[in-house]
Write a structure and sequence with these properties.
51% helix
Length: 101
């Protein structure tokens, strides 16, 4: 399958959080990483996710979905919709930097 655009990256940038705002940012990055990991495991890109989300009434362009996920700027509802669209379970891991909050 030919892909256009930037490849999905699982790079993790999770510094220890000192404030609630920083902690929420860390969790947003983790949620983003989990969605990207699930996409990679399925061999999907943002286009396939956008198509799968349409069946749930979420009609956003591929570019908007890409930006939301890469910025970690999405609601818990969007996160769960992605999970449902991918018909999978996401395993939360790699949260050592958040445990002492």
């Amino acid at each position: 399958m030919s892909r256009t655009g930037r490849p999905i990256s699982l790079a993790s940038k999770q510094p220890a959080a000192a404030t609630e705002s920083e902690a929420l940012d860390v969790w947003a990055l983790e949620a983003s990483r989990l969605i990207k990991q699930a996409l990679l495991e399925r061999g999907w890109g943002y286009r396939e996710l956008a198509e799968a989300l349409r069946s749930q009434g979420i009609r956003r362009s591929v570019a908007v979905i890409n930006r939301r996920i890469n910025r970690g700027n999405f609601s818990a509802g969007f996160f769960l919709a992605c999970l449902q669209a991918m018909e999978g379970e996401l395993e939360v891991r790699g949260l050592d930097s958040c445990r002492d909050l």
